[in-house]
Fold this sequence. Notes:
12 strands, binds beta-D-ribofuranose, Inosine-uridine Nucleoside N-ribohydrolase, Chain A, binds calcium ion, 15 helices, eight-stranded mixed sheet
Amino acid sequence: MVTIKEVGVSVILERLINIYMKKVILDVDTGIDDALAIIYGIESKRLNLLGITTVSGNVPLHMVTKNTKKVLSLIGREDIKVYAGANRPLIREPEYEYSVHGSDGIGNALGYLEVDEAVEPTFAPDFIIEQAKKHQGKLTLIMVGPVTNLALALRKEPRVAQWLDKVIIMGGIVSQAGKGNKLPNSEFNMFADAEAASIVFHSGADITLVSLDVTTKTLLTLEHIEELKGTKYYDFVLNSTKVFRSFTFTKFGVNGCALHDPLTVGYVLDPTFLKTEKYFVDIETVSPLGYGQTICDFRGLWKKKPNVNICVDVDSERFLDSFISTLKDVE
Length: 331
Ligand code: BDR
Ligand code: CA
């Protein structure tokens, strides 16, 4: 019989972490709500985060990476490895979201932080391939930006689709025609690289799409933020979301900013936050009127095998409680 002393406490701890915590990679285009998703995921202490991969999206790649490292520094988790990925969409030209996220991408809320911008030497899509192969059937990929990194990984190694346990993507709008946030029928992450999304949707991976249909029902208001007063993240949440909240109010007349990316992480922490149904979903890549539109065949008219779990309902109150209490309970 091997004793605890012989195996080593750190090895035992690592084994316990492997048993009880879900292995994830978080792919981000940080981004205000990406920043909140990173904080929520890490502070939940319930995810085994193997690394964070970055992608061009809300702002150019070097800014996304810098913002991600700033957020990790704010949390005090500079030990988490960051892998830079695609610095542009597959085919289309990049279009950034400064009006939503501010000139630096995180509402200029961490301008005072200096960080080492160096990243790991591995290209993000290669890191995804490597980890998916190593942890076959056990790794969840959470994507809260354009899905370019996964598309590149799939092009290089199609078996990634089967190796990954689940792919949870923030993106699209499936049941509320005309209520997109980029074009009337298109959501930003899908619009930012629709060709990449097309590759991902057709890959055979187990995909869940956390779309605007549900994320726009999780509004973070000033009243919620005030609940964080006196805690570690109050200043950051208040200051970073200012531009996002004012954009949402001016453009859509809505009070509070949608927690798109945190809800996507929340679904991995607690799948009961969302109700899902599986249908065939495809994405428009040709029409200028509908570029990036996610089309869900609710009635099976195309007679195609369902490929995407879409979200049909959200328990916003319980999710918002979880988000606020996770940030609030930090020492
Ligand atoms: C998505 O687009 C980005 O601006 C946000 O970070 C989120 O991932 C919402 O449409
Ligand atoms: Ca995002």
